[in-house]
Q: What sequence folds into this?
């Protein structure tokens, strides 16, 4: 029997598989089923900063945008904060796995006072899904990065539970951002968040959304930055997210430096049975390669082993295309 336990964000997980923030974790019954299927931890469906502010400050928050106001009113009604706290305490009572709360936020605003309540309700950690899409031409890169750091700094001062940050890929220097987050006391980063992407229906000339589920090829960017960041900022803890659909990819995430492996689309598409399947593939791989503990091979294939990562990347880039040009 292989030892699958890992320590992620200071939490003891029976295995590295974490169910990502989504509707999959929006009720205690589903969380119980995910635990039974073998999940090592779950991240709850995100509360939105606007939702928190709205409930706290009453309904005139989005008055200038009636559509957003109506949507938020409805969203708030369905997902009231009290209900959310009850979900946390019920999930804690009914399961033994870590329950990670999640807030989707854009500012270091008044919602942060509420973070402590998530902790009081029993959340074991807090994952911040920071969604900042810079749309103003006068906003500089430094402004955007400062906004991330300010949110993380304030949240980490407000709670004692570990905080992780679910990042998007759009940073000029991802390792530098990860290191700056580490110095603001974030315990972990999730690489990467998968944002809503727009699309156009050319027949009806309407704006639509791109597919909500990931494809396995999206994992490649995750693997690159996991392997680079875990080598350059080794004291940070990493969870991989986006494009992990099977056991082999979960093994790659661990080899690249992830301690937590977050999955979402594959559960929606294949059902909860994919969880034991991924764990079985992981164990079989460990037996084949002589590993008894997962913790012994986390980061084994990251960039720490490369003498000159820049030269390596450049050579791979050249080889990649030249192989087709002979
Ligand atoms: C239906 C659905 C709902 C989601 N809701 C949230 C959410 O509330 N908060 C969040 O941080 N991510 C949310 N996500 C993103 C997932 O947590 C995950 O990061 C993304 O799907 C990429 O992982 P995957 O490739 O395993 O699907 C959602 C994804 C899906 C498909």
A:
């Amino acid at each position: 029997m292989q030892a699958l336990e890992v320590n992620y964000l200071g939490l003891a997980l029976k295995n590295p598989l974490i169910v990502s923030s989504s509707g999959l974790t929006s009720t205690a019954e589903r969380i119980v089923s995910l635990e039974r299927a073998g999940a090592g931890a779950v991240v709850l469906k995100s509360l939105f900063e606007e939702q928190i502010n709205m409930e706290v400050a009453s309904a005139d928050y989005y008055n200038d945008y009636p559509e957003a106001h109506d949507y938020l009113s409805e969203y708030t009604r369905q997902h009231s904060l009290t209900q959310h706290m009850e979900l946390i305490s019920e999930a804690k009572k009914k399961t033994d796995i870590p329950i990670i709360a999640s807030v989707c936020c854009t500012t270091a605003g008044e919602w942060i006072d509420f973070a402590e309540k998530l902790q009081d309700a029993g959340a074991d950690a807090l994952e911040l899904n920071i969604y900042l899409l810079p749309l103003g031409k006068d906003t500089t890169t430094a402004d955007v990065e400062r906004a991330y750091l300010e949110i993380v700094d304030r949240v980490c001062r407000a709670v004692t539970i570990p905080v992780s940050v679910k990042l998007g890929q759009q940073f000029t220097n991802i390792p530098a951002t990860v290191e700056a987050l580490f110095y603001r006391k974030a315990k972990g980063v999730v690489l990467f968040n998968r944002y809503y992407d727009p699309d156009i229906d050319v027949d009806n000339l309407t704006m639509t959304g791109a597919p909500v589920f990931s494809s396995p090829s999206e994992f490649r960017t995750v693997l690159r930055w996991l392997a680079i960041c875990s080598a350059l900022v080794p004291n940070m803890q990493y969870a991989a997210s986006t494009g992990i659909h099977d056991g082999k990819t979960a093994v790659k995430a661990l080899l690249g430096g992830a301690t937590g492996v977050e999955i979402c689309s594959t559960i929606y598409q294949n059902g909860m049975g994919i969880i034991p399947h991924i764990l079985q593939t992981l164990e079989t791989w460990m037996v084949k390669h002589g590993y008894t503990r997962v913790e012994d091979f986390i980061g084994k294939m990251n960039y720490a082993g490369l003498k000159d990562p820049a030269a390596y990347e450049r050579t791979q880039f050249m080889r990649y295309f030249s192989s087709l040009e002979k």
About this structure: Residues 20-23, 45-46, 102, 104, 129, 166, 193-194, 212-214, 241-244, 263-265, 268 surround flavin mononucleotide (CB under 6 Å). The chain has one domain: 6-322. The chain has twelve helices and 13 strands.
